[in-house]
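Task: fold both queries, return tokens.
Query 1:
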Amino acid sequence: MQKKVILSDGTLNTCFEKVRRNFYERISPQKHAETYHTAEGLHYAEPEFTGKYLDMCAYYYQSENNKKALDNGMTVVNAIKNYQRQDGYLGCLESGNELKAFSVWNHSFTLYGLARMYEATKNEEIKNIADKAAQWLLDVYADCSDPCILDATNNGSENITCIFSIMYMYKVTGDTKYSDFVKKVLDYCENTAMNLLTFESILKLQSAKGIEMLVVYLGVLCYGKMLNDQRAVDAAKRYWQEINDTQIRNTGNATIKEVWTEGGNAPQLLPTDTKPNETCVAVGWIELSLSLFYSEQKAKYLDAVEKSLFNHMIGSLDKSGEDFAYYQGNYGKKIYRTDDGAYQCCRYRGFTIFSYLKEYLYYVNETAVIPMVYTPSVLQTDEIKLTQQTDYPKSGNISFKAECKTEKELKLRVPAWCKQYSLSVNGKQINAELQDGFVAVKLPAGDTEVLLCLDMAFVKTESIIEGTNYLSYNYGPLLLTLDTHFGNSIDDCADENGNITKLEVKNGDSLVHFKVGNIHLIDFASAGSIEPDKDVYSVFIKKKG
């Protein structure tokens, strides 16, 4: 079913437009075309970023039919064709280093970008380039043991990430040599400490690396869904659940120094220089959550997307839309640039999650519509036009006007953080039973107005960190944060019994602004970003007394 989504307003639309403008006006396709030369040294990572750039070119061409997006992508594809080694290699490291450092990772993301460009264009020449690149992987790891596919950086996770791009080649070509290869890799890993399907715990796998293992499990999930292998699907679900239960913090992200850790989501002060909450990890987490939602439409996956999107991801995008913070601490300063002004490694993953925003606002099948993320927007298909109006997450009032040609079911998520809600249809309040995180409304042919009101409670949480009592606060899906920009010191203490006042937001400095006693609180996404060189923030605030 064809669908069209229009963003009409709101914070997410602002992020989307910044990234879109950056794609068309500021990113040079020629610079990406220059990626594919033989690099000196082992830490050349540009092919990964260029592969993600090709994905964006393919998406904007598909979604907007914009010839500039196609031309930008073809500029890079033509460079790849000229640079590609005779054996298909595109990792860009010197001869003898093809299996070291980021080489296979680089090669795999270039392959993914080529697969996306082929999917968007059906250009047989692109398919041939991609197949040649994919065949290099299939030939090198023909039996997975000589060379060993797990003989790789990041505790062996780097090279098995290729299963994701190989599965994408299977998706766009239907050639079973690709799915056969992934099955061989998974079977091989089962006899190692990287037993991806039967692992006991994420921390007992050979690698606890964040983004690499998320990409691996995206590949595992793709394999399971496309080949109807329930064991693979269940493994991805178990991996997701353990991360959700033990790693994801109130900021909507995880990792320290880019790896999962024991008790990862326990309250702790994490300044940016300890390298916590890598933005690539947040993106991978959102992508895996979305893929699992598409598989079984469970609300918990959308809760995870919402939490990460409205906290970490919006907070990681700099005001210009040109870059993303590499890491975000829950204490200290936000850093959007390296000292020499170079962009961060997470840049193109961040771009991708906002470029694709329209794709994950609504889920539509033959009988039902599910708004996946609440934001002002319009959904149009052949059978329904659904207009959503809201200032969520500033408040919890979300209205829908449905114009249906045939009867549909509107399934509205009540987020896990929400303890009270109300629902009305055509101005009449109704009692709709909550089932698996959703309330359902029957939409007859014709016009129907629906209003969902979520109680945006102000919630206080007490924690002990290294023997000291701390308080933290949430408002709906938003984590709140002390920000020194508003006059507090980072060492000020919060009174647990202090009066709570919701203040007017001025100058667009934040999404929300509260005062608890003498402590000013704004949303985490906005904290530390008004004057990044000066502003200091903290998620955890010392408890008074």
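Query 1 returned. Query 2:
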Amino acid sequence: MIRRADIKIRILVILGVVALSIFYIYPIKDKLKFGLDLKGGMYLLLKADTSRIPKDKAQEAIEVAREIIRNRIDEFGVKEPVIQIQGINSLLIQLPGEVDRERALKLIGQIAFLEFKLVEDDKNKIDEALKGNVPEGYQLSSLENGEPILLKKEAVLTGNDLADAKSGFDSSMMPDVNLTLNSEGVKKFAKVTQENVGKRLAIVLDGKVKSAPVIREPISGGNAQITGSFTVEEARDLALVLRAGALPCSLKLEEERTVGPLLGSDSVRRGINSIVLGAVFVAIFMLVYYLLGGVIAIVCLILDLLFVLAGLSLLRATLTLPGIAGMILTLGMAVDANVLIFERIREELSIGKPLSLAVKNGFDKAKRTIFDANITTLIAAFFLFIYGTGPIRGFATTLSLGIIASIFTAVFVGRTIFNFLLLYNIKRFPMLEIIRNPKINFIRPRNICLLISLFIIGAGIFKFIPSRDKMLGIDFKGGQILEYKLTPPVSIEELRSILRKEGFKDITLQEFRDIKGGIIIKSKKDITASLEKVLKGRFKKIDRLNITTIGPSVGNILKRKAFLAVILSVLGILVYVAFRFKHFDFAFAGIVALFHDIFISLSFLAFFHYELTLLIITALLTIAGYSINDTIVVYDRIRELIPKFYKLPLRELINIAINQTFSRTIITSFTTIMVVLAIYILGGTALRSFSFTLLVGFIAGTYSSIYIASPLVLLFRRRRSIIK
């Protein structure tokens, strides 16, 4: 039993951590950063073309491009943008809030390279150029109205000579852009206009001639105008990009994820509802089954949630939709540590130990298992963070914080509360017991269980191979997913007919199950502009919910990263389990069971026609951590029983271990599956495939820890009767 003085110190530590956590999360709106998928916005990955830039200047060009884009976005008015260099030649841009997609893409991607070039008025040279014989030092171009124009290649001024650019109106009240040159530009402009009175001077933007006015007289003021068929907004945006400066290289859109505010707010509502429902399910069960222990577990769960939110605020991490899923999952998995402790206390009480000693032994014996089980899940989360992108990293961060918080609350906070109650002479720790001393022969049906598993996996592979192209989602094969809410709503057949008549053939249509009028359109090409033009002409109102564009090269990179994340997670878990149990065959049997759960999950995804996306990879890695978690609990019990029953055959030893941990396995699985069901029911379309995968995987994980992992140890050690 912990001394009274130590309990006081522990309580002060807990209160201090709670107070610090509240400080970091209050008020939540100001302290927590919400991801684009929760409040809407754009996520862009742009690849820079540095092929024309010397290698030693390429990195500098990327950095310059980042600053120019930052200046453009600042003037665009988006608050708290994220602009990062990713890899060698890519830029990651996140624009939170409601963003005009087309305008943002144009502002970010436009090079805005401005040049002033003299126009050649020699008719002979123009005629030769039109015949295909462009004179050296010249280039053939055309005005916006199609009129051919011969320009001198060398620019007399460039955007570097610009001091300012503002939108305005010309004498005909048409929008234009007024340019003000810097001191060096004024000198150049005065010289050029003085020497070329009567000639035309073309203003060229990104290789296109915007206008070519005649120089009537020398201009010494350093002012010029760009005229053309602009709208007011186009003139304003052109002035904006000219002020910010030209990009040193072209940028190609590789990946885009645009979430409308409507879908974002819907995701928040559904996420909160599923958290509340999942937490209520778990709380009710723990109260009913463990009574006083249930109250302690609920206190620990509330503190878990508080500490996770505080951790996100402290790390300045972003809470995303997968992050909310990780939080819900954390609540379910956090119960495991409490259940392990309570079941250990029950065992100690059942052999006549006094309550104070039962509590001490229960915590001491459960502690090692809790650490072993959670560290394996942390290994999976670690590789998920390294190889994940955006929202997936958010999931890994939330899951990691949740695991650390649950260890602290169960081992430290829970023990402190128990010992505090013991000081006030609590005499009993009543609990319900549905499963009492089971004596099931789990080893006997191992061959039948293995055959059933092999049959399901084989059927899944048979189903997957012919439809693998359909199963690979946009994250891995590239393409575009467009999600809209149409008013008035329309049937999928009618919409398909409308789009087919408009020439949209290679597309796939789906309906949202939880948004009236919601439709999902998948295409291998970028059809956003043309599609929205058709929809706006046919429907009273269209709300853009989500746009995802993935380039083929990005898809290949994500495939490679997903593969590395899975393989390295499995290897990390294998090394850790082998090290902790000092037996490689234990680790190998656990990894086989882990792969069993992953392949069972993939098989059911194939049976129910779900696509394989990054979110599914996240679910599979979570299953891997959960699966080995369950298996380690049984392995720890086997290791504990060895000194007591060293004369028993390994078959009987494994049976005893599984029976002794059976109650814990069922309770933990039940509470976790309840939480995942809450995500499945209330999480909406965005989390449907994710929660389905977890549901299948957790059921498979419970089954494999009993019927696959432990019997495999027996198979690998069939010539030895006991573990040494």
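Both queries returned. Flag for query 2: The two ends are 34 Å apart (CA to CA).
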